[in-house]
Write a structure and sequence with these properties.
single chain, 1018 residues, two-stranded parallel ribbon, two-stranded antiparallel ribbon
Amino acid sequence: MDAHSDSDRGHSQSFPLRPIYNTTTTTSNSSALPADPVLVSNPTLDDTNVAASLLPSTNRPTRISPSRSDTSHDCYNTDPDYKAQLDPAADSRGPKMSKAPLLIRSSPGFGTGSYGAAPIHPESKDSDSDSDPGSPSRRVSTESYYSRRRHSLDVGHSTTFRASTPSLSRRRKSQSEEIGGSTVAGGLEGRFSISERPLTNDLATDPKSDASSVNDEDGSDDANEDADQDPPDNSPYAQVRASVAPTDNTSLSINTPRMWTLSTLFSILGSSTNLFFSLRYPSVSITPVIALLLVHPLGLLWDYILKRPDDPPEEFVDGVRIDRRTSLNGSPQGQVARKERSRAGRLRLWLAQGSWNEKEHSCVYVSSNVSFGFAFATDVIVEQTQFYKQDVGIMYQLLLTLSTQILGYTFAGLARRFLVRPAGMIWPGTLMSAAMFSTLHKEENKPANGWRMSRWKFFFIIWISGFLFYFLPGLLMPALSYFNVITWFAPDNVVVANLFGVVSGLGLFPLTFDWAQIAYIGSPLLTPFWAAMNVIGGLVIVMWIIAPIAYYSNVFYSSYMPILSASVFDNTGKIYDVGKILKSDFTFDREAYSNYSQVFLPITYVLSYGLQFAGLASLLTHTTCWHGKDIYVQWKRSLKEVEEDSKPVYQPLESETDGTPSNADRRSIRISSSTFDNILSHEDVHNRLMRRYKDAPITWYLLTFVTMTAIGIFVVEYYPIHLPWYGLLLALGICAVLFIPIGIVMAVTNQHSSIYLICQLICGVVFPGRPVANMVFVTYGYISSAQGIKFAADLKLGHYMKIPPRLLFLVQMAATIVSSVTQILVLNWMFRNVPGICTPQAINGFTCPIARVHFNGSILWGVVGPAEFFGPTATYRALVWCFVIGAIAPIPLWLYGRNKRTSIVRKINLPVLFGSLSWIPPATGLNFSVWAVVCYLFNYLIKNRAGAWWAKYTMTLSAALDSGLAFGIVIVFFGFIYPGWMDGFSWWGTDVYRKGCDWQACSYNTVPNGSRFGPDTW
C-alpha cells in the first residue's frame, strides 16, 4: 500500500474513526469533520499512548481523507490492509497490526469511544513491560513532523509554544467531539497544545455552533452534564466532575529544568518567609495559593525567553524527554544539528525543554504546599533553646526536622490504597487547585445558566474585587470584620456580649464582611453541604445550647471566666502564670503549685476538650462500622502488593473485574456519595488513567519509614530529650492507628481531626514531669499525622492531574528536604542576628508567640500533667466519660442506617460533628455560623437551582477569594502596617468594635478583691 500518500497531501496519518456525537445537537455546522484527522492511541503499544500518527509508516493503516465540505460523519477506507485490521481473515499477507480493536475502549462492555488512556487489559497488568524508549514504536520521523507542521501552517493553526490558542481550541473541540470528548493526546500535537477539556460539563464550543446557542437563556443546553459526553466511569461526584477533566495528555513535559528550578525557588522562598514571620507578632502567612498564581507568569516568561520557532521537535514519555540521537530514517541529521549549535545554544535547548503546562504547574504547587508551612519541629527547637535554655546543635536540629517531616510522607504513601486511589476519596480541598489549573491553562468556554463569561475572566474580576475590598475590613474599617453590631447598642452588657459577641462571644448573629472570618476554618465552598450541616448541628447543640446553660449555671466555676477564650485561668479569674509553678531548671514545683492555683478552663474550652475526646473515640468506631470490611480487603491487597513489588502498577480495587467498575458499582457509589458507606472499593476514570504509569513501589515508602524511624530513635536516645525509644514508637503507633480514619474524614468532608491533644495527654500520663519529652512526643505523633494528611492530599492532586507517581515522590521528597534545611538555616540566622528574640523586649515584635503557646502547653500537660485535670478528685474528671460516649454513639446510628440508603440518619457523621468544633477556641461561633450560611447558599441552593453555574464557577470563586485575600493581607501588612503609616489612623470604624465587653472578654461573675473561687485544696 502507499504508506506515504497522506503525508504527500499534507495530511497526518491516523486511524479512521466512526464519530460519537450528541444526538440532541441539531446544528449542522457542528457535524463537520475536523480540519485535521484526529490522533488516536494505538492499544498495541506497551503503555506509551503515543499517537498512532507517530508510528512508522509500515505499521500504520492509511485512510481516505474526506472532503472538508463533507457533512457525513461516516468515512470508510477501502484499503485491503485496513480491512485486514478489522477482519484478520480478510488478508493473511504482509505485516499485520494487533488484533486489538482500533477504537480504544474504556472497557469491553461499554461500547463507547475512547475515554482517557488505552486500557490496561485484565490479562496484562505489568507496566514494567514498557517498550524501550529507542524502539521504533516511539520514534518520530523528522519528515513526518515537518510535513504535519507545514500542513498546520497551511490551514492556519499556530505552531508556537504557547499552552493553547483559540484556533487549536477549535480544532481540539472538533477532535474531542468525534471520539467522545475525552481522549488522551499523544505525539507532537499534544505537546504544543492541551487537548483535554478542563471540565466534563464545560466542553469547548465550536465557534460555528456558538450562534445556535445565543438565544439559550435558560441554560438547558449549556454546561449541564450529559451522559453522551461523560466517560462511563467518570467520577460520580459532581464537584470532581466540575473541577477535573477525565483525560490525560500523556505527551506533556513534566521532568524539566523549568519545573525543578521553579519548585526549588518557591520551596526556599516560601519556607523561609513563613518561618521568619512565625516568630513575629502580628504575623502574616504566605499560602501556597500565592505560589500557584505567581509561578504561572514565571513559567510563561521562561518559555518566552528561551523558546525559538526553529527549535527541533521533542518527544516526552511519562513527562520525561526522549533523547533522539538520529532521525527515524537513520540519517544523523539531528546529531549534526546538535553539533552545529554552540555550547550556549545547547544549554538553552536543555533549559527550554517542553512547554509550560498544567502538569509542571501542579508539581511546582505540590512543592509549595509541602514547604510553605513552617516545620513544627522548629517550634520545639525554639522552645528548647530560648525557653528551656538547652544547647542543641545544628545536626540535632536537622535530624529532628527531617525525620518528623518525612515520616508524615511515609504514612501517606503506605495509606494511598485507602486514601488516594478510591473514587470516594475526593479530597475537596484539592479541587480548588485543580480548577485553578483549568482556569489558567485552558481557553475553552461554554455558557452556564446564561453566563458566558470565561473562568479566567471570572477569576480575575473576583480576585481584583476581593483584593481591593479587603482594604476596608483589613485596614480602613476593621468593624466590618469584627461585625458585633448588636453589642454596639449595649457595649457594657455582659450577656449581650456573651451571646452576640464575635471576639469572646458565641456569635449568634452570623454576619461579617471579611472573607478571612468566613473562611477561617476552611473555605465553605469546598465543603459538602451535608458535612457542613453536621458541623452546624454540633455548633447549635453544644455551643449555642449546652454552653450558655452550663456557663450561667456556673458549671466548673466557668462564670468567673469569659465564656470563650483560648487562655487558661487561675482561681482569681486572671490568666494563669505558668512561671509561678516552675523551678529554675523548668521542672514542676509541687509546693509552688499548691500555694498558687490549679488551672481552670473556660466553658467552651472544656466542651472543646470533651468534643475532641468524643471525636477521637467515635472516629475509630465509625470507621470500623462503615469501612471495616473495605479496609481489611484493601489491607490484604496492600500486603499482596508488597509481595508483587517487582511489578509496581496501580492495582485495580476490589470491586473491579475487567479494569473498570460496573454500572451497578457506580450507582451504588452515587447513592452513598453523602455518607461514608462503601466508598473504598470503587475506582473511577482517574485511577484507570493512572494505571498506565509505573507506581512508586511500596518498598520505597517502607525503606523511608524504617530509615526515618531509626533516625528518630537516635535523636531521642542520644540527645537530652528524656523520651525513651519506645516512647517514640508509641507516638508513631498512635499516628498509625488514627491516620486512615482521619484521612477518610478529611478526604470526604474537608474537615481535619487533630490528634494534638490526645498526644499531649498520653505522653503526660506515660511520661509525667518531662516537658521536652512531651513536645518531641507530640511532634512525632501529631506532626507525622498532620503532615501525612497534607502529603496524601498532594498525592490525590497528582492523581487528578495525572502526574507519574515516581516523579511525584521525588518532587515531594526534594521539596521537603530543601524546605527543612532552609528553615533550619534561617532559624539559626535569626537566633544570632535578631536582638532579644523570643522575649518581650524583642526588636520589631519577634516574641515567638506560637512557640510560647506550645511552651505553655508543654508545661500544663508535661509538667502539671493530665492527672491534675482528669484525676479521681480533679475538677474536670467528668470529661473522661466523653471517650465512652464517643465510642458508643456511632453504633446505633450504623445499625439503624446501614440498610436504609435514603435515611437522613446516614448523613449524620459523628466524627465530623464532634471533631470540627475543636477549632473553638480560638475560632468563635461567628466563624462557624457564617461559614455554614455561605456553604448553604452555594452548595445547596445554587447547586440545586443553577447546577451548570455551580459546576463552572464555584471552585474558581473559592480560589479567587482565597488568593485575593492572601495578596490583600500581604500588601496591607507590608505596605501600610509594617512601615508604621497607620499608627495614628483612628476613627469610629476602627474603634467601635473594641468598646465593650466583647473585646475586653468580660466574665459573668467577678471575683472580689482578695478572694478566689474553686476548691480550697488541690
